[in-house]
Amino acid sequence: MTAHPKIDPETNEAFAYRYDPFPPFLTYFRVDPNGIKTTDVPIFSIKRPTLLHDIAITKKYAIFSDIQIGMNPIKFILTSGSLVGMNSRKISRLGVIPRYAKDESEMRWFDVPGFNNLHAINAWEEDGGDTIVLVAPNILSVEHTLERMDMIHGCVEKVKINLNSGVVSRHPISTRNLDFGVINPTYVGKKNKYVYAAIGYPPPKLSGIVKLDVSIAEVDRRDCIVACRIFGEGCFCGEPFFVAKNNLEAEEDDGYVMLYVHNEKTGESNFLVMDATSPNLDIVADVKLPRRVPYGFHGIFVRESDLNKL
């Protein structure tokens, strides 16, 4: 199952999938607010096993990425070679399916050459539902992904799909090497303005955090970074989290960015809380930890109110 199910904050449904080295290579499903999993929707229009790491949702659709990185289970079994490989002849594409589809008959695929995203930051609809917008980091030099992490560069892009014409357009949000972008979770599936992303050193070492204003790209093609914090020489962070304040009238960015930072010179690890609205992502809390937290890619923030429901 994906490490990135998407939860609609308004319906409290979780949208997810599993992918497999054998047919069907992709199976879509959702979980209702009561925790009941719906019937599987196998996607047979993916003809070869591919690396599907993330999903995006809008109010009407679920969006999948069929990228140039795929799996080769036969080679892995017969020769003990790598299970994952890169296919330079393959054209990357995005698949769009209605969120409540009962089968894949309404699945539509759109070619997006050169677009290879493992993570999806957010997606939404525009033009009365005729256009889908996806914000995600595109892996440049994808041919080096599996063997030369130091050559990987994640360029955050905004991709627009016109559902009527089938035309796909793209432009960069930032040229900096970024990944692990997060947003205010109450904006999942609807248009948002702010993204918080980690600066690749490259991964898994992340040297800092930036705040992006994606709305800038709509009127000006300049870099959308509006705030930045670098943690210093020998200091690297993990994946960031955005935690919104419990205020119904709060602005989208009214909250905190939280993450772990490890100092390789002193051996100390710290948990940092930063003001998400400040121009320098000011640190408002710095907690020294009794032991190191590995750099690791993914985690989750859980509120005390959620724990009390268990």
Automatic annotation (TrEMBL):
GO terms for biological process: carotene catabolic process. Binds 1 Fe(2+) ion per subunit. Keywords: Dioxygenase, Iron, Metal-binding, Oxidoreductase. One of its GO terms (cellular component) is chloroplast stroma. Its cofactor is Fe(2+). The keyword Nucleotide-binding does not apply. GO terms for molecular function: carotenoid dioxygenase activity; metal ion binding. Signal peptide: none annotated. Fe cation binds at H4, H53, H119, H298. Belongs to the carotenoid oxygenase family. This is Carotenoid cleavage dioxygenase 4. It comes from Solanum verrucosum. The lineage of its organism: Eukaryota, Viridiplantae, Streptophyta, Embryophyta, Tracheophyta.
